[in-house]
Each structure stands twice: as C-alpha cells, then as structure tokens.
C-alpha cells in the first residue's frame, strides 16, 4: 500500500527537507518503522521508548485522528494520506 506522508517543518531536517514522502506500509506502526529506516532519528521524535506515539504528536489518516481509530495499529490502504502534526503550545 503506497501512502503519502506529510512531514511537519520541524522534522523535515531529518527527511532531507522533504515535506511529503511516499511509503509502502500497511499500518501506522509499520509506517513509523519504515520512515525510521529511511530517515534515522525520526521514530525517536515521534514515539516514546515503548513505541507508542508521543502525546504531543498527532497523526491523522485521511483527516481522521488515529486516537479515534486504532492508534498505531490503524490500518493503511493504498493512496491514504497521513499527516504528522506536532501539537503547538505556548503564548500569553
């Protein structure tokens, strides 16, 4: 299954400045592993040591938050679009 992955600006330094990447993966967990194989250090920015997605990282598959699907076990299908979005906090 080829999926399009949108990479947020803070992580693009790890992806050779690519904002979008196409990857073949069947689940979000597999996607993270493949991304880390291609772009070392990406997984540690996205996941905790136990492999769970960090609280402040939001991942959407076709505009649906994986927290309301099956989290890392969320299945991917051909032509799905995955967005990795770090939460933003701060301000006055």
Describe the protein.
With 92 residues, the protein is an alpha+beta fold. The chain has a single domain (2-86), classed as Beta-grasp domain (Ubiquitin-like (UB roll)), CATH 3.10.20. The protein contains two helices and five strands, in the order E-E-H-H-E-E-E. The protein has helices spanning 28-38, 42-46; strands spanning 2-6, 20-24, 57-61, 64-65, 81-86. It has a five-stranded mixed β-sheet, with helices on one face. Strand 3 and strand 4 (64-65) form a beta hairpin. The protein is globular and about 45 Å long.
Briefly characterize the structure:
The chain is of the alpha+beta class. It contains two helices and five strands.
Strand content: 25-35%
Q: How would you classify the quaternary structure?
A: single chain
What is the overall silhouette?
Answer: globular
- At the first level of CATH, the class is Alpha Beta
CATH superfamily: Beta-grasp domain
Model regions low in confidence, pLDDT < 50 over at least 5 residues: none
Number of strands: 5
- Main beta sheet, described? 5 strands, mixed
* Helix percent band: 10-25%
Mean pLDDT: 94
Which CATH architecture would you pick?
Roll
The CATH topology label is Ubiquitin-like (UB roll)
Q: What is the overall number of helices?
A: 2
Structural class: alpha+beta
**Secondary-structure element series:** EEHHEEE
Distance between the termini: 44 Å
Q: C-alpha Rg, in Å?
A: 12 Å
Strand order of the largest sheet: 2-1-5-3-4
How many domains?
Answer: 1
């Amino acid at each position: 299954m080829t999926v399009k992955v949108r990479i947020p600006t803070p992580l693009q330094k790890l992806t050779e400045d690519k904002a979008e990447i196409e990857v073949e993966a069947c689940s979000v967990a597999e996607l993270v592993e493949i991304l880390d194989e291609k772009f070392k250090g990406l997984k540690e920015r996205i996941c905790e040591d136990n492999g769970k997605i960090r609280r402040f990282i939001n991942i959407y598959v076709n505009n649906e938050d994986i927290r309301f699907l099956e989290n890392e076990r969320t299945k991917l299908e051909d032509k799905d679009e995955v967005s990795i979005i770090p939460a933003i906090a701060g301000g006055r």
